[in-house]
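Methods, example record. To illustrate the input and output format used throughout this study, we show the complete record for Ribosome maturation protein SDO1/SBDS N-terminal domain-containing protein. The sequence lines were provided to the predictor; the line carrying structure tokens was produced by it.
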Amino acid sequence: MGKQQAHPKQHGIVPNKEGTGAITMAHKVENTHFIIVLDDSAKSLIEEIQKHPDKVGDEQLGQVYSSLAIEEIYADKVGEKASEQQLNSAFNSVDTKAIVKDIVMNGKFH
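The corresponding predicted structure is encoded as:
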């Protein structure tokens, strides 16, 4: 079974290219980098969340989730959608919101 392709360019989004308004954030679990694409306006909010993880509320996480430029979780590179098996193995979940939270709390900007 091949990997599903869902590249942000299909939606007019070019992550990490200046002026496109999108950034990527990745979190490595075992040998796989899990990547999300966010509107760059979320960067300061995420930096604040990472500085004070004990003070993170549902409202902040909701703002982060709503700032996803595309609601896909990628594996290893943008364009290769993570499979349910990969997500379950890494996060014990396929719930997008829970996985985005984990990536935001533990990931790094690319």
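Annotations derived from this record:
The chain has four helices and four strands.
The helical segments are 43-51, 58-66, 84-91, 96-106.
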